[in-house]
Design goal:
Chain lengths: ~260, ~220
């Protein structure tokens, strides 16, 4: 088997006195789509935020695409990563946020072109062509000149997805991307992800409360509780025949089985 | 003295006042941004320096600061002319308040904006200049407007270090002519007009800068 694109080795993470991860290990293969489900406070979002370098770790190692994320080799020793190293590592990663976090002072188009132009050095023309294609993909070609505040929640989130994709990440992190949406707007966002998943051209790691969606889209589902993977497997196994009691209780509560 | 003459004398004073404002305002803005950013992002010793500056200039009287710069510093071998002393004292004083405005406005930008800019791999200076500051600037405009008007009013203090500003001209005219009523009505109108101009200018700025930011809520 090829090398995993994401690997957590004995990772520790604490917030003050609260331990989120204690000796946590986890792998994701290239082009795999992994859903993370579980009760709130179980460390699901923290996992994504650590990968996106929004949170540091207190112990252990993380590899992304064969390189250490939070450490770098220096004189044959692993030392904490410099800003430069993190900057390089982030090229692999993209993230879509629960609360969208679009830049309100920029038009939709500029939200999408700003980073490719400033960070990747794309020409304006290339960046705008790519943005138009992405807006087409998420069904918002007519909203290029709008400001985020003029969009609905579902539209904002689709821009959020387009903005993350514009950086062409190898790994896409989706952090509860429909949790802040009105129920009738959830599907338009999930449809975009469904289409992306069909292409199977990148790795996706998603934290979600949409169980049916997780079941439909994932190669693997991980049930998280208290900073540990209690159970993982193909969606059919997890959703139809969960082995662990805690998984059963959680799914019962969610799906009302 | 005829009313027209009074007005023309007072207008000369007003021009001096406007000059002081025009020089002290950029100084105040410079101090506000420099120390506001230092307070937020610089290493600890510089942060302490920034806090010291803010607390000192907020915690002592502007008039005493002016006297110190004009009358006391010469004893330490640092003589500056009255105009410069006035501009420095007022600029530093208003700048200290502005520092807190800058800091507060930057901190009021939602954390998600910072996180999105990290996720998109902007460098730290790009994050600040392209994402955080443009949004913070809009939050700063109304309190900056207040401070600018405070500055206009505080300029009257420089009359006490021999500068012939609006207040100085008014007092000397009043002593000379005893036409107190007319003089101080004109003075009032002139200060008010200056404050209004600033007020309108800042309202215009706010409107210009808040394009797209109009309605609140999540982005």
């Amino acid at each position: 088997m090829s090398q995993p694109i994401i690997e957590f080795k004995n990772v520790q993470k604490r917030f003050g006195d609260t331990t989120i991860f204690d000796d946590f290990s986890f792998k994701v293969e290239e082009n795999e789509i992994v859903s993370i489900i579980g009760p709130s406070g179980s460390g699901k979002s923290t996992l994504l935020r650590i990968l996106m370098t929004l949170e540091g770790i207190d112990g252990g190692y993380i590899n992304v695409a064969g390189e250490s994320l939070w450490h770098m080799l220096w004189n044959d020793r692993y030392v904490p990563a410099s800003n430069k190293h993190l900057h390089k590592m982030r090229e692999q990663l993209g993230m879509v946020f629960q609360h969208f976090n679009l830049f309100p002072h920029m038009t939709v188009k500029r939200n999408i072109t700003e980073a490719p132009m400033r960070v990747k050095g794309l020409s304006r023309q290339d960046a705008e062509e790519s943005a138009e294609a992405l807006l087409e993909l998420v069904g918002l070609a007519d909203k290029a000149e709008s400001y985020p505040n003029d969009l609905s929640g579902g539209q904002k989130q689709r821009v959020g997805i387009a903005r993350a994709l514009a950086m062409r990440p190898a790994i896409l992190l989706l952090d509860e991307i429909t949790s802040a949406l009105d129920p009738e707007l959830v599907d338009e966002v999930l449809d975009v992800i469904r289409n992306l998943a069909k292409e199977q051209s990148f790795t996706m790691l998603l934290v979600t409360h949409e169980m049916y969606f997780a079941r439909e889209i994932s190669d693997r589902v991980c049930f998280f509780d208290k900073g540990k993977i209690v159970e993982e497997g193909v969606p059919e196994d997890i959703f139809s025949a969960p082995r662990e009691e805690r998984t059963q209780a959680f799914l019962n509560a969610y799906l009302g089985q | 003295m005829e009313f027209g003459e009074i007005v023309s004398v007072l207008l000369q004073g007003a021009i001096v006042t406007i000059k002081i404002v025009a020089m002290a305002l950029p100084l105040a803005a410079f101090m506000a941004f420099t120390f506001g950013l230092v307070r937020l992002y610089a290493p600890a010793p510089f942060k302490q320096l920034s806090i010291l500056y803010i607390e000192f200039f907020r915690g002592t009287s502007a008039l005493i600061q002016l006297y110190w710069i004009y009358f006391v510093l010469p004893f330490f071998g640092l003589s500056i002319d009255a105009m410069t002393a006035g501009v420095i004292a007022l600029g530093l004083n208003i700048g200290a308040y502005g520092t807190e405005v800058v800091r507060g406005a930057i901190q009021a930008v939602p954390k998600g904006q910072y996180e999105a800019s990290v996720a998109l791999n902007f460098t730290s200076s790009q994050r600040l200049l392209r994402i955080i500051l443009p949004q913070a600037l809009v939050n700063m405009i109304p309190p900056f407007g207040n401070l600018a008007i405070e500055l206009v009013k505080a300029t009257s203090l420089v009359s006490l270090i021999t500068i012939a500003d609006l207040t100085f001209k008014a007092k000397s005219l009043a002593d000379m002519t005893l036409q107190v009523g007319e003089i101080f009505v004109v003075v009032l109108v002139l200060y008010f007009a200056m404050a209004q101009c600033l007020s309108l200018f800042f309202r215009y700025l706010e409107k210009r800068l808040s394009r797209g930011l109009g309605r609140g809520g999540m982005n």
